[in-house]
Amino acid sequence: MKLSGLVKMRVALIDVPSYVKCRQNCEAQLTASRCWKFARRIEKVSDDELFAKGHRACAGCGAAIAMRLILKATGRNVIISQSTGCMEVVSSQYPQTAWRVPWIHVAFENAAAVASGIEAAIKALGKKGIKVLAIGGDGGTVDIGLQALSGAVERGHDFTYICYDNEAYMNTGVQRSGATPYGASTTTSPPGALSIGNETPKKDMPSIMIAHRAKYVATACVSFPLDFMEKVRKAVSTKGPAYIHVLTPCPIGWGFPSEKTIEIGRLAVDTGMWILYEAEDGNIRITYKPNRRKHVREYLKTQKRFKHLSEVEIEKIDQDIEKRWKKLLG
Amino acid sequence: MVRRDVIHGSRALAEAVKLCDVNVIAAYPITPQTHIVEDIARFIANGELNAEYIRVESEHSAMSACIGASAAGARTFTATSSQGLALMYEMLFVASGLRLPIVMANANRAMSSPINIWNDQQDSISIRDCGWLQFYCETNQEVLDLTIQAYKISESEGVHLPSIVCLDGYVLTHTIEPVEIPEKEDVRSFLPPYSPPFILDPATPMTLGPLGDPSVYMEFRIAQQKAMEKAYETIRKVNREFEKKFGRKYGLIEKYNMEDAEIAIVTLGSVAGTIKEFIDSTNEKIGLVKIWCYRPFPREELIQTLRDVNTVAVVEKDVSIGLGEGAVFSELKGIFYSEDVRPKIIGAIVGLGGRDVANQHISRIIEECKNPKHEVIWVG
Q1: How would you write the pLDDT of chain A (330 residues) with one tens digit per residue?
Q2: Cys-Cys link to B278, which of A163, A315, B120, B362 (CB 3.0-4.6 A)?
Q3: Closest partner residue to A121 among B24, B60, B216, by Cβ?
Q4: Are the C-beta atoms of residues B159 and B230 closer than 8 Å to each other?
Q5: Domain check: are B274 and B209 in the same one?
Q6: How far apart are CA B164 and CA B12, in angstroms?
Q7: B198 and B49 in a common domain
Q8: What end-to-end distance do the CA atoms of chain A give, in Å?
Q9: Residues B310 and B238 in one domain
Q10: Does B202 contact chain A (CB < 8 Å)?
Q11: A277-280 vs A216-221, strand pairing mode
Q12: Residue A238 C-alpha, separation from nearest chain B C-alpha, in angstroms
C-alpha cells in the first residue's frame, strides 16, 4: 500500500495484515482494529499533488497544508474560485502558479459570487461532473465576503465553500478579523492598560451556514488530515451548497515555532477551543471526541498572541469552552 | 421576416439579449433598469430564452458572477444603473483586466447624493477608465442594434474586452418607440456562438487572475490599451457587417448636417434627438456629432469632422467636480491641443438629475457659440 507523504510521516501501523508493517510504537497507541480502519481511510488518500510545491507560503503555514489536502480530496475535476488573501498571494505570482487545476482569483469579497457564476455557466453549457469550489480566508469569509457567501448559499448553488481560518488578516500583517478569538493580541487589537486584546468572541460562521440550510456544513483542522479530506469529499459530492470551516494555525500571526503547526492544531481540538463536527441537513455529529478535554491553558500558553492573558481571563475562556463543549458533546 | 414593434428601450434591450443567445444573466434590480431584468426573467420563464439567471444579492455579486460565468465559457449579461454601477466599480477593472467579453446595459441615472432616480450620464462617464468599451444610444432601435454589435465587438479576436451599452434612464428605458426586431437566424449568422480561446476547464487547467508584480503589471495594462486600439478597427468592421446584414448604418460617431456646419454640437445619448429637431427647425449652419462609441475614444473621427468648424459646443450630462467641466469637453480639448487647425470649443453641462433639455436650452448654447463669453456654461 502506498501512503502519501504527509500522512506517512505521522502514522505508524501495528500488525495490520496486508498493509504496511509497523516497526515502531504508534504515537496514538492505537489498537490493531482501529489501525485497520485507519489504514483503510489512508488508502483513499490520493497521491496526486495538485497544489505544487515551491509556492511562497511561510514555513509551517497551516493554510498551505489545507490547500494541499483540499486538492487531494477533490481530485482534478474541479474549478476553484479563490478570494484575495495569503493563499492567493503565495500561489499565483505571475508567470508561475501552484495550481494544477483551473483556478480563478477575482477579488477579496466575492469568491462565492464568482463560484456561483462558474456553476451557472457549467449548467448553461450542459457540462457534467465538474465540481465548483470557492476558497477564502477568514477575513474574506466572515467579514468582507459574508454577503456574497450568504447570497450564493441561499440561492442553492451546487458548490462548496471552504474557509481557511488563521484567525486574523495575516496577509496584511495580523490585523484582527471577525474570526479572531477573544483575548488574542493582533496588530489592531493590541493589549494595553485599557485593553485585554481582542474584546469580542469569534464569529460562529459554521452556525451561520447551518442557519442558511446549507446541505452540508463541517468544521475541520489541518492537524486531522483524514477527517478534513473526508469532509471535503463529502462536501463536493453533496448536491447543493456545502461549507467547511478549517482551522489553519499560523506561526507568524499566532507566535509559535514553525514546526509546531500540527501540534497546535491538535491542542486547539483537544482543549475544545475548536470542535470538529459535521452537519448534514442541520443535524450535527461530532467527528472527533478527545477522551478528556484538556484545559485551554495548554493551548493558549503555546502562542505569543495569548501570553498577556491573566489567569482570570484564561479561566473565563475555559469556562466558555466548557459551556459550548457540554452543549455540543453533552 | 423582420418584426416591427413599438416597445420600451428596456424591452429592446431584453430582445437583444434573447437574440444573442446569452447563456448566463446575473442581475440585481435598480430603478430605472428594472424592466430589462424583468423582461429577461419572463423570457426565461416562458422558455423563450434558454439561459441560467442568477438573482444575485447585489450588483457587486452580479458583476462577480458574470466574471465567473464568462471565464467558464458562457456568454454573459447584466444590467444596472447609477449606484449599482458604482457598487460594481471594483469588479469593472477585473472584468477588463481578465479580458472577459461581458456585455452590460446601463440605464443612465444620476449619482447620489441627493439621491435621484432620474437621468444623467455621470454614472457611466465616471467609469471611463475601467477598460470597458462604452456605447451610447439615441433611440430604442440603437439600443437593440448596439447591444447585438457589442457582443460581436467584445468577443472579437484581439479585443476580448467587456462592453457597456448606455441608454438614458426613462428617456429610453420607459419610452416606447418603433423598433425593428431582426430574425434570430439572421442574428445567429451575424454573431456566431461564443468560443473563447481559454476557459476554466479541468481538461486544460489554467490560472486566471494571478498576482502581477511591478516587473509585469505595466505589460498587462499596455496589452489592454492595445486591445482598445484593436477594438477601434473592429468596431468599424462590425458596423459595416451589421449594415450589410440589417441595413442600418453605425460608426464610432454619427454626423448630422455637418457638411457645411459653422457651429457643431457634440453629444452622447438621447439628447441628440432633441438637437436634431432643433437643427431641422433653423436655417443656420449648425451640425451635430453624436458619439456612439465613447471608449475607445473616436479621436481621429472627431478631429477630421470638427477641425474646420468655427465653434464646437460639447453638450453633456456629467461634470468633473473641482475641474468644473464635463469629461467629453475636457477630452475634446485635449485631442485638439496638438492640432494646428482647431475650432473654438465650449462646454455645456445640461440635464443633471433628470432636468429637461428642451429647444430653449439648445438655443441658449447656440447663442453662446456665436458670441462666446464663457468656457463652460450650465444650462437648465
Answers
A1: 444 444 444 443 333 333 443 434 444 445 455 666 777 788 889 999 999 999 999 999 999 999 999 999 999 999 999 999 999 999 999 999 999 999 999 999 999 999 999 999 999 999 999 999 999 999 999 999 999 999 999 999 999 999 999 999 999 999 999 999 999 999 999 999 999 999 999 999 999 999 999 999 999 999 999 999 999 999 999 999 999 999 999 999 999 999 999 999 999 999 999 999 999 999 999 999 988 999 999 999 999 999 999 999 999 999 999 999 999 987
A2: B362
A3: B24
A4: yes
A5: no
A6: 15
A7: yes
A8: 39
A9: no
A10: yes
A11: antiparallel
A12: 19
Same domain, B46 and B174: yes
Measured in angstroms, the CA of A100 and the nearest CA of chain B are apart by 6
For residue B305, the surrounding DSSP H or E stretch is helix B299-306
The count of structural domains within chain B is: 2
The whole-angstrom separation of Cα A273 and Cα A159 is 28
Residue A21 falls inside a structural domain = no
Report residue B157 as a C-alpha cell.
479576436
Which chain B residues are within 8 Å of A88, Cβ to Cβ? Answer: 211
* DSSP codes of every residue in B36-94: HHHHHHHHHHTTSS--EEEE-SSHHHHHHHHHHHHHTT--EEEEE-HHHHHHHHHHHHH
Which residues in chain B are closer than 8 Å to A124, comparing Cβ atoms?
23-24, 51-52, 69, 74
CATH of the domain at B215: 3.40.50.970
Please report, in angstroms and rounded to a whole number, the separation of the first and last CA atoms in chain B.
44
Enclosing domain of residue A298: 46-329
The CA distance from B35 to the nearest CA of chain A, in Å, is 22
pLDDT in tens, B248-261: 999 999 999 999 99
Asked whether this complex has an ipTM greater than 0.95, the answer is yes
Residues B94 and B209 in one domain: yes
Instruction: Note whether B291 contacts A: Cβ–Cβ < 8 A.
Output: no
Q: Last residue of some domain: B246, B278, B305?
A: B246
Cα–Cα distances in Å, from B126 out to B64, B80, B108, B252, B328? 20, 14, 11, 20, 11
B170 and B235 in a single domain? The answer is yes
Convert the pLDDT of each residue in A270-323 to its tens digit: 999 999 999 999 999 999 998 899 999 999 999 999 999 999 999 999 999 999
| Closest partner CB to B54 (pick from A77, A106, A116) | A116
Domain assignment present for residue A7? The answer is no
Residues of A in contact with B44 (CB under 8 A): none
Phi, psi for B354 (deg, rounded to 5)? 90, 5
Task: State whether residue B323 sits within 8 Å of chain A by CB.
Answer: no
Q: What is the CATH number of the domain that holds A269?
A: 3.40.50.970
A193 within domain boundaries:
yes
Residue A182 lies in a domain: yes
Our count of domains for chain A comes to: 1
The shortest C-alpha distance from B75 to chain A (Å) reads 9
What's the CA gap between B209 and A229, in Å, rounded?
Answer: 27
Which residues from chain A sit within 8 angstroms of residue B94, using beta carbons? 106-107
What are the CA-CA distances from residue A320 to residues A206, A249, A271, B84 (Å)? Answer: 18, 21, 12, 43
Is the same domain home to B74 and B193?
yes
CB contact under 8 A, B61 and A94: no
Instruction: Identify the closest residue of chain A to B89 by CA–CA distance.
Output: A107
Same domain, B276 and B338: yes
